Amino acid sequence: MDALTLFIIRHAEKPDDGWPGPGFTADGVSDTESLVLRGWQRAGAWTALFGTDLAKGDYARPDAIYAATPGTTPNRGPSSRPAETISALAARLGATPNEDFGKGHEPALITALLALNGVVLLCWEHKAIIADVLPLIPVSKG
Fold this sequence. Notes:
Elements: E1 4-10, H1 37-51, E2 64-67, H2 81-93, H3 106-114, E3 118-124, H4 126-133
Parallel strand pairs: 1-3, 2-3
């Protein structure tokens, strides 16, 4: 069996009490569940990091990209931020992100991820990474 390399990133910046600005979709529609301008900039930075060889091989191009299932109605959950964060990278790589798992479905997500091999990028909600994702990943010591 080939090895799995799993990169886990948090979604980019979100609206928070007026700073760092309003959230909006890729089409410019105001949305509290979307990224703010700085978040869209960070999404572009992830694209440069994982979608080119700028890091000289430290950050390999993902073979698969996963993000939490996004909401479809502006200003109502679930958050679209994880999917938005990886959208430019997926477009650059010509990849279709897997958005089949939503927040709260981390056990099924981890089961699916651990069945893969190659380089996989997961973008998830930052608090859930610590509380719900990392505890489910087996770690080899030694």
